[in-house]
Amino acid sequence: MTAKTLAPPRSFRAHRRRRARWGLALSAGLTASVAVVFVFSLSFGSVTVAPTDVILALIGAPAEKWHTFIVQDLRLPRAITAPLVGAALGASGAIFQRLLRNPLASPDFLGVSSGANVAVVAGFALWNLTGYQLSLAAILGGFATAAGIHLLAGRGGLSGHRFILVGIGVSALMASATSYLLARSTVSDAKAAMSWLIGSVGMAKQADIIVLAVALAVLLPASALLGRRLRVLELGDGTATALGASVRRDRAILILAAVILVALATAAAGPIAFVALMAGPISARLSGGAGESVFRAACAGAFLVQLSDLAAQHLLATPISTGVVTGFVGAPYIAWIIVRANRSGAA
Amino acid sequence: MVATAEKAPPGTTAVKRIGLGGGLLIALGAVAVLAFLSIALGSRSVTLQTVLDAFFDPTATSPDLTVIRDMRVPRTLLAIVVGTALGLGGTLLQGVARNPLADPGIMGINSGAALAIVGGIMLIGVQSAAGYVWFAFAGAGIATVLVYGLAATGRDGATPVKLALAGAAVTAVFGSVTSAIVLSNVDALNEMRFWQVGALSGRFMPVFWQLAPFLVIASLIALFAGRPLNTLALGDDVARALGQPVALTRTVLFALIAVLCGAATAAAGPIAFLGLMVPHLARFICGPDYRWILPYSALLGPVLLLACDIAGRVVVAPGELQVGVVIGVVGAPVFIALARFRRLVQL
Questions:
Q1: Running DSSP on this structure, what letter comes out for residue A290?
Q2: What are the TM regions of this chain, as residue ranges (chain A) (predicted)?
Q3: Whether B252 contacts chain A with CB within 8 A
Q4: What count of other Cβ atoms lies within 10 Å of the Cβ of residue B314?
Q5: Cross-chain residue pair A339–B155, CB shorter than 8 Å
Q6: Does B154 contact chain A (CB < 8 Å)?
Q7: Which runs of consecutive H residues, i.e. helices, occur in A101-205?
């Protein structure tokens, strides 16, 4: 009799343990593949350096003297920016998608990236800002826009369609502001700003990389921890409050973290299209029963940007911007997601 | 959803018809007044006498007259035809999609045309407006089919959110490809960044003569679309029961939209929000009957575009704000207000 009543909890617990273990293994696997691609991206180029030599050069014991120069000075900045930017975009995209409960809700469309864009282009073209100042401008722009959208969407506006529609409207306004700034600046400024607007991890400055790395080190663990509570928030505001979640605070912190990450990634590499949109669903697909996690979304984003950047550098005769590659990968994905969401009646 | 149909009276009373007809005359007068102001106002101040001379004394010459004849008159004429085309295009789009937030700019139709034009000029080497307008039609058509097709498949059809998201996604992809093409050539970039904002300045008489036939003919045809749009507003099932070939009507109307928006984009660049605001203004004046909405849209479009163009010249004189920027500043709040305050699916 007692055995009978005890059996279901035990199997449930076992199931949860299995799930947690699978999730952990998956996170480790994703991290490992990011590391592998990182080494690969350091070894390919006009001169190929063997992966073992890359590692030796990284730890300061190069097999040949010139390895250090090629690996650390030439390739390292770009190779390190790609996963950082990807992780930031992936994490923030996953947070947005889960908070707004819509697979298409990504900072790309919601005006956060476009707000950061305007701020950076304005800072660059009007006031000649550089380095940290541009990062700060991106954060301020992203925040001001996010706050504006939140205000305009009104009470309880974060969930549901209104936030998305208002975001798209604001985003269109920001886009026209950006083109206005492009039109009134000098040709060389316009060219620089425009190539920045497509987004490429190759142009990140050291200052951007450091700021982004620090922000990720703080915000990624924080939002991954808070992300566990996302599951409660996903039940809807009413249910979540009834279950004891402090909906407003959790959501505010998460959105704050997401906006900072997007803004910094944008400041470093420009608005790299659709990574934030794709990373979350990809990691969720991989995770299967293990459930969604902000950390795995960040890994997926990092992996995505690394691969896209490798393709951008080596696939064609002349290197192209990373953003063009992710744009081409992302477009069919969006089509697929809309069609699929239609079939299941959601979106 | 059938609210529109219930409100639409079977036969408008004579008094109302006279009132609405009078309103049309007033709108026509407004177009004339604004056209005159658009010719008279600008960074170079011109006396009334000179304006009259420019029209009634073909032998007179002076710098002022040159400005008027070669720059302000083509600009004003373009504003009128483009305004009409975008106003009608937006109305048709909202009618066909039965969606109050449909707009050629938001839905990515203008950006499709822009991409096709840039591709035609840069990759194939088309020179004249008469040549690249065909690319504009093709691009606008492809974008329309893509966005509407993506949003409309599925159970609940093209809801405002799905349409806006699909449009934002398509715009983002097209935009990044456009700038990737443009970036390869500094001269093209210099030219394109002014066009990309949406501007009426710098367009001279040849452009008008090359594009006006398309715009005028398509606008005239669009004016006769009132009856089918009224029927479509009842819903597909009712429309079919009333003997309307729904699929055929939709196809024809979409083709018309592609021509209107494509030619307008070829003339003035991708202008957003005009096609959104005009139909709502018209509906506010004359109610839900498309037989009245269409002529009103045809006149209110140029009124709005001319007003914004003049405002752009006056506000920052002696400089100039491109009309696309002014429209964006005016139109984005309207879009947001519509998304915010109206019950969404009302058409």
A1: G
A2: 21-44, 79-97, 109-127, 133-152, 164-183, 203-226, 253-279, 316-339
A3: no
A4: 14
A5: no
A6: yes
A7: 112-125, 131-153, 161-184, 187-198
Using a 10 angstrom Cβ sphere, with 0-12 exposed, 13-18 middle and 19 or more buried, the burial of residue A8 is: exposed
Specify whether the CB–CB gap between B168 and B107 falls below 8 A: no
Q: What are the strands, taking DSSP E only, across B89-183?
A: none
pLDDT tens digits for range B185-215 = 777 777 777 777 777 776 677 778 888 888 8
Q: Which pLDDT tens digit goes with each residue over B263-320?
A: 888 888 888 888 888 988 888 888 888 888 899 999 999 999 999 988 888 887 667 7
Q: A321 CB near a chain B CB, below 8 Å?
A: yes
**Which of B151, B325, B340 comes nearest A162 by C-beta?**
B340
Q: What is the pLDDT of residue B6?
A: 44
Judging contacts by C-beta atoms under 8 Å, the chain B residues touching residue A162 are 339-340
What would the pLDDT profile of B26-39 be if each residue is shown by its tens digit? Answer: 888 888 888 888 88
Contact B328 A165 (CB under 8 A): no
Q: Is B345 left (phi over 0), alpha (psi -120 to 50) or beta?
A: beta
Q: What is the spatial distance between Cα B286 and Cα B27, in angstroms, rounded to a whole number?
A: 13
* CA atoms within a 13 Å half-sphere pointing along the CA-CB vector of A152: 28
Other Cβ atoms within 10 Å of B252 Cβ, number: 15
Residue B5 has pLDDT above 70, yes or no: no
Domain boundaries, chain A: 17-344
Which residue in chain B is spatially nearest to A328 when comparing CA positions? B173
What residue spans of chain A are helical by DSSP H? 2-43, 51-58, 65-68, 76-100, 112-125, 131-153, 161-184, 187-198, 206-233, 237-242, 247-269, 275-287, 294-314, 322-344
Q: Which amino acid is at A200?
A: S
Q: Are A11 and A278 in contact (CB under 8 A)?
A: no
Domain spanning A17-344, CATH architecture: Orthogonal Bundle (1.10)
Q: Does the beta carbon of B335 lie under 8 angstroms from any beta carbon of chain A?
A: yes
User: Hey, what domains does chain B have and what are their CATH numbers?
Assistant: 86-341 (1.10.3470.10)
CA distance B76 to B33: 12
Helix (H, G, I), strand (E, B) or coil at B12: coil
Per the CB < 8 Å rule, is A173 touching B105?
no
Residue segments in chain A with a per-residue pLDDT below the cut of 50? 1-4, 345-347
Tokens 């639409």, located at residue: B8
Residue A28 token pair:
């480790």
Do the Cβ atoms of B196 and B171 come closer than 8 Å? no
* Residue B11 DSSP code: S
Cα distances from A297 to residues A32, A302, B259, in angstroms, run 14, 9, 43
Residues of chain B contacting residue A195, judged by C-beta atoms under 8 Å apart: 183
Which residues of chain B make contact with A343, given a CB cutoff of 8 A? 153-154
